[in-house]
Design a protein that fits this description.
- This protein is 19% helix and 25% strand.
- By secondary structure, the chain is of the alpha/beta class.
- GO terms for molecular function: GTP binding; GTPase activity; microtubule binding.
- This is 18669_t:CDS:1.
């Protein structure tokens, strides 16, 4: 992905919904050897609705010195945030047994943040935010609240004037059906800080791209 190309690390991916919290990548150039420290930043209570009186950020595991190890630790950190009633330390060495592991989480999504602080010689000075993909419906009626939660979360980040919006647009669906386009136009009507990125171009049906 584009974020992975910029950051040099792989983020959690799957065919279904994989990103279920905010992932904040803080990149900084350093003369020291490459390293990444994963942290958990809690801004909201367990139900994800009420802001905490004080934001806390705690380290999650030891510093990582191999970029290949970041993806697994980021997944573990996300699982810790999705199970706020449990001690987060129990997920530092968590083993994911199957693709249905998400079904064991107490939360489907959370507004709290997995932070990846990455330093190294070839690392640019940049902050990147990876957000859960916008959804339009859920299988269960009781999960429909997450449609609004994710949309509100996206809006809260992209409306910031200092943010550059990377709008990922899947070639599998019509652009009119992808809400990120309308959200970006609302907060950035001139398009001066919006970049559109097409994904899955191999899924374009033959002939549909012709004028």
């Amino acid at each position: 992905s584009l974020l992975e190309a910029i950051s040099g690390v792989q983020l959690p991916r799957s065919d279904g919904t994989c990103t279920r919290c905010v992932m904040e990548l803080r990149l900084a150039e350093s003369q020291e050897p490459w390293q990444c420290q994963v942290s958990l930043r809690r801004e909201y209570d367990e139900d994800g609705k009420t802001p905490l009186p004080r934001t806390t950020e705690t380290k999650f595991g030891n510093s990582i010195d191999d970029p290949k190890d970041v993806e697994l630790m980021a997944r573990r950190a996300q699982k810790a945030l999705l199970n706020p009633s449990n001690n987060s330390d129990q997920y530092i060495d968590w083993i994911f047994n199957d693709d249905n592991d998400a079904d064991t989480n107490s939360l489907k999504f959370t507004k709290n943040v997995v932070c990846l602080e990455i330093k190294g010689n070839d690392v640019p000075n940049l902050s990147l935010i990876d957000l859960p993909g916008i959804i339009h419906h859920t299988e269960k009626v009781e999960d429909e609240k997450f449609v609004k939660l994710i949309k509100d979360l996206a809006e809260s980040y992209i409306k910031r004037e200092a943010s550059v919006i990377i709008a990922t647009i899947s070639c599998k669906d019509e652009i009119e059906n992808q809400e990120i386009v309308s959200l970006a136009r609302t907060v950035d009507p001139s398009g001066l800080r919006t970049l559109g990125v097409l994904t899955k171009p191999d899924m374009i049906e033959q002939g549909t791209h012709e004028p």
